Amino acid sequence: MITLIGTLLGFIGAAFPELLKLFRDTQDRKHELSVMKLQMDAQEKGHTQKLDEINTYGDIAESLALNDRVKPIGIEWVDALAASVRPVITYAFFILYVIVKCAQFFLMMHGTPELPWLGTMTIGQAISSLWTSEDQGIFSAIIAFWFGSRTMAKFSK
């Protein structure tokens, strides 16, 4: 069940940017319709030149707002650090996950003085008990996200 939910969440996570894009496009079309209605009203009143100027400034502002991204500031290490935030967090959590699983494996194989019964597992038993339904859910969500985003990118082209 967790695997199915993880897969669905991964696919939805990959589709979410496309859904936001569709929502934004719908809002842009509504905005364009309202601008067109204003233009028609202004033409009836003879104020088309001023309205064109306003619309041009509005389009420029809208384009700048949509394309506003983190811009490099010119300091090489600061720009590199800003670009590396997401990969560094991803690698840090992956390393943490591996460390936790290695610690669990060590405890299952060798145990501790307080829990000596933990050290009674074979390698196969330890490995099979490390791969839980939660791990399956995490794995399926990650795979569905990456391949789902690739599929969404193909459909959007």
Please tell me about this protein's structure.
Helix 1 (2-45) packs antiparallel against helix 2 (48-66). The chain is an all-alpha fold and 157 residues long. The protein is built from 6 helices and no strands. The chain starts with a helix and ends with a helix. The longest helix has 44 residues, at 2-45. The relative contact order is 0.16. It has helices at 2-45, 48-66, 76-83, 85-110, 123-130, 133-156. The mean pLDDT is 79.
Descriptors:
single chain, 157 residues, mainly alpha, 6 helices, 82% helix
Envelope shape = elongated
Low-confidence stretches: none
Strand content: under 5%
The structure class reads mainly alpha
So how many helices? Answer: 6
Q: What order do the helices and strands come in, and which of them pair?
A:
Blueprint: H1 2-45, H2 48-66, H3 76-83, H4 85-110, H5 123-130, H6 133-156
Helix pairs in contact: 1-2, 1-6, 4-5
What's this, in brief?
The protein starts with a helix and ends with a helix. The chain contains six helices and no strands. Helix content is 82%, strand content 0%.
